[in-house]
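Budget justification aside, the reviewers requested a transparent look at the raw inputs and outputs of the sequence design task funded under Objective 1. We therefore reproduce one unedited record. The lines immediately below are the structure tokens for a 692-residue chain.
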């Protein structure tokens, strides 16, 4: 019986806690009914006297807050803030965080608001030290917000009262407006601080849950990154295995023929060695080696690593005239299935001769109808009313642009850039179509002629506007947008465009320095370093206290990025004269130095799935569109990776995110293997001949 009474008492306590919530939420009628019935049954209820005492205490705390605000007493105010504002509001509520930032500014500059000549410099210096500590701790969370970015330079400005960036702080209206914001916040928050424990537990649980989700997302991203690295290594090893098996079989046959007395010609031996070492030598260099000399092939074999696959089957030829006809005149579903199948031919073919042959067949048969005089061509699918058709056309163009010869082919289509620009401006912000269009344009920006056209068409202004709201962009879009901006900023024309809206460009770039996606920092640094070669941009940056803002980002652990920022600061303080007009030679491209990389994102989130018994992919192509002798077997020209100048400087040549990451991985795989850190440091490569 005693246990039953104790349990009933506990339950009544829980009910009373719920009653607190009902009073807090102003369910007045419900509370009255509950209290009336509780009294009738002789059950205890919450006493209103406790509320009266709490109300009087709340009023006292409210008055203490405003008094310390008016007197500039930041010590008393800080103690009240820490004791009375609940942690879940103080640490996670955006309104509270922004208000706290402005309150910190108020208390920091308070000594400067006394009459001229009576400023307490010692007190101001103490408060500046306190404000620096705040910026490095609690205030660090707002360093990515444009609204607060200029105030991170406040501790480094000798006399803020005359600095143009801080004039607003010393206007007569600023302090009363801030006080009004504080009063509104306190009237809501102090009431909320008396909330029942039920609500407090709920809010705390949500905060913990959000933190756990964020940690899981970070872990998932890291696992996906490691998985992509392993997949690239596996694909490469698999291709090497096929290549070596084929060459081994040929050599065994040749050895048997030699036993039977048949001689092996030097030309045959040279052909085998060309295939074996094709991934590590230029064709001309391989042809110049005398393979008839004893030991030549074996010495090269010992010195080589991972030869490129050559002995792989070619895919069947296709009837490209029928293909292009159905792409233009077929149903929307057929168009989408064909575009998907053609893209898969590129993305799923083996790296090397098989993929080169597929691409050369597409180009030699003019798949995108570059030379067609018809009004309605395959390229017009970019304007289709069907969203899936537009998306799959954009994916195919992106796949073309991932390969050097594909970019050369696309660059010969005069109307292509106009189609892509129109699509950027009309497609939904985070659509897969828009992502692929942006990525294709970024890859095309490796070519000077396309850079010039993009700059003339105002793409820099569009990119700056998009990046201003970077938190709403996917990682894929963000990386390709900022790397495209960097590529265009490397040109003199692009720098001059940036100079026309220098302040806006600088604000966006410095905001991106604090973005949680650290992969973009290399491109942001490259863009900043490039545009700061313009005197007018350097002057605008100095007025914004850019050096002080940049130094706020050198406190991170990534020493390479920190050294890049030092180069940017050196550029900012340099005295470089007006740039010389750049060459009109549009053939001087950096494209040949970029390795062909077919990223996995090209085939992500396939929205088109075949219906039962419906042909798709390679089966659709080889069943309905089989052709005769349309494949072009060509030796692909090889290029060396970019030469290394220094690992410290920002990027100074056009790159794509996929090839940039790939270069980092293959050049420094040992560093990756040794590193235990999730955010492993990477090296940056540059050309000595910088593209303007």
């Amino acid at each position: 019986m005693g246990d039953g009474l104790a349990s009933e008492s506990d339950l009544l306590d829980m009910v009373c806690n719920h009653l607190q919530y009902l009073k807090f939420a102003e369910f007045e009628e419900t509370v009255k009914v509950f209290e009336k019935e509780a009294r009738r049954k002789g059950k205890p209820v919450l006493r209103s006297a406790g509320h009266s005492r709490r109300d009087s205490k709340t009023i006292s705390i409210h008055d203490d807050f405003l008094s310390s605000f008016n007197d500039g007493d930041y010590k008393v105010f800080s103690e009240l803030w820490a004791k009375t504002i609940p942690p879940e509001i103080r640490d996670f509520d955006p309104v509270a965080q922004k208000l706290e930032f402005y309150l910190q500014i108020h208390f920091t500059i308070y000594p400067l608001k006394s009459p001229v000549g009576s400023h307490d410099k010692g007190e101001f210096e103490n408060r500046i030290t306190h404000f620096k500590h705040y910026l490095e701790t609690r205030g660090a969370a707002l360093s990515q917000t444009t609204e607060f970015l200029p105030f991170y330079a406040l501790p480094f400005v000798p006399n803020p009262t005359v600095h143009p960036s801080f004039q607003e702080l010393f206007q007569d209206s600023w302090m009363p407006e801030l006080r009004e914001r504080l009063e509104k916040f306190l009237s809501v928050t102090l009431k909320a601080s008396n909330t029942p424990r039920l609500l407090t537990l709920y809010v705390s649980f949500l905060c913990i849950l959000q933190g756990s989700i964020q940690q899981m997302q970070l872990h998932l991203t890291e696992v996906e990154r490691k998985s992509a690295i392993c997949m690239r290594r596996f694909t490469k090893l698999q291709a090497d295995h096929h290549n070596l098996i084929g060459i081994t079989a040929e050599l065994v046959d040749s050895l048997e023929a030699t036993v039977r007395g048949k001689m092996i010609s030097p030309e045959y031996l040279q052909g085998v060695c060309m295939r074996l070492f094709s991934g590590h030598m230029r064709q001309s260099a391989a042809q110049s080696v005398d393979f008839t000399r004893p030991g030549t092939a074996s010495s090269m074999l010992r010195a080589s690593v991972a030869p490129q696959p050559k002995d792989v089957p070619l895919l069947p030829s296709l009837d490209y005239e029928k293909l292009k006809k159905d792409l233009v005149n077929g149903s929307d579903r057929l168009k989408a299935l064909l575009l998907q199948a053609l893209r898969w031919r590129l993305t799923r073919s083996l790296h090397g001769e098989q993929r080169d042959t597929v691409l050369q067949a597409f180009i030699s048969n003019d798949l995108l109808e570059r030379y067609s005089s018809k009004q309605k061509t395959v390229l017009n699918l970019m304007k289709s009313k069907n969203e899936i058709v537009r998306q799959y056309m954009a994916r195919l163009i992106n796949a073309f642009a991932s390969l050097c010869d594909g970019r050369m082919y696309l660059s010969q289509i005069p109307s292509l850039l106009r189609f892509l620009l129109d699509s950027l401006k009309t497609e939904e912000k985070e659509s897969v179509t828009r992502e692929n269009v942006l990525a294709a344009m970024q890859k095309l920006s490796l070519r000077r002629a396309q850079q010039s056209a993009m700059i003339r068409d105002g793409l820099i202004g569009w990119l700056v506007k998009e990046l201003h709201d970077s938190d709403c962009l996917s990682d894929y879009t963000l990386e390709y947008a900022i790397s495209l901006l960097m590529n265009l900023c490397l040109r003199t024309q692009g720098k001059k465009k940036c100079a026309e809206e220098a302040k806006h460009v600088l604000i966006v770039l410095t905001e991106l320095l604090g973005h949680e996606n650290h992969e973009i920092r290399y491109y942001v640094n490259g863009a900043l370093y490039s545009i700061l070669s313009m005197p007018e941009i350097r002057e605008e940056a100095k007025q914004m206290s850019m050096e002080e803002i940049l130094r706020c980002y050198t406190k991170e652990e990534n020493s390479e990025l920190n050294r890049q920022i030092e180069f940017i600061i050196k550029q900012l303080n340099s005295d470089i004269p007006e740039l010389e007009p750049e060459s009109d030679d549009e053939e001087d491209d950096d494209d040949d130095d970029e390795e062909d990389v077919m990223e996995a994102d090209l085939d992500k989130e396939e929205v088109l799935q075949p219906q039962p018994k419906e042909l798709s992919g390679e089966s659709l192509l080889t069943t309905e569109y089989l052709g005769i002798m349309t494949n072009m077997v060509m030796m692909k020209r090889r290029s060396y990776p970019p030469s290394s100048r220094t690992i410290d400087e920002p990027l100074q040549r056009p790159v794509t995110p996929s090839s940039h990451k790939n270069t980092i991985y293959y050049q420094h795989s040992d560093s990756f293997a040794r590193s235990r850190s999730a955010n492993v440091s990477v090296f940056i490569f540059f050309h000595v001949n910088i593209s303007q």
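The two ends are 90 Å apart (CA to CA). The mean pLDDT is 78. Computational costs for records of this kind are itemized in the attached budget.
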